[in-house]
Amino acid sequence: MRQDEARRGGREQSAPQVLLLFAHPAYERSRANRALLEAARTLPGVLVHDLYETYPDFGIDVAAEQRLLAAAPAVVLQHPLYWYSAPALVKEWLDLVLQHGWAYGHQGHALDGKRLLSVVTAGGPRSAYGSTGANRFTLPELLRPFEQTARLCRMHWLPPFAVTGVHGMSDAELEASVALYLEALSFVSGEAPAEVDLASHELLNDLLEGDAARRRRGEPSIRREG
Prior knowledge:
CATH superfamily: Flavodoxin domain
CATH architecture: 3-Layer(aba) Sandwich
Shape: globular
Oligomer: single chain
Strand content: 5-15%
Number of helices: 9
Structural class: alpha/beta
Helix content: 25-40%
CATH class: Alpha Beta
Mean pLDDT: 89
Number of strands: 6
Order of helices and strands: EHEHHEHEHHEEHHH
Largest sheet: 6 strands, parallel
Number of domains: 1
């Protein structure tokens, strides 16, 4: 069952550490996203805001959305990869909520310094995304418009987190993806390393998996908790 925590009981909740903006027009049929969101809701400090549940007719309450954004130091934008981009409501949300003079421009500083993590799910395997794959471009390349949006709004863009190959994913593979996703949400809620530490990682998945291997060897973690 869909539930939007940001509007539960008709009023906004206390300020979260992470505002998770979720957009999927067919959530009930998405095995992967159901598992991810159920896990996200168990984390303290993460507020799940289901855009399609809240705005089924696309009637976005801009002021309410801006209040939610202003209250959270970190934002996660999660959606399936639809035609190399996001579902339509995400574009509508970006067009209306990120107003000039509020989110960007000389007088628009509401999002300065906030962290933004893009989380995408895709039916094809990761190998399909790249110069030799069926889709020709890497996932970060396909997500460049979102990266530039973040940078124009003076946000800190993190390497995207991706759950790929969801159409043929086994239960064990999905469980492992959910565990890594929880690591990603924990990572974005803390103090991220300097951007130079992130530049060599195509996806946040790579950084987190490498950090886990480092910890297993008894080496210090790169993570610095906030």
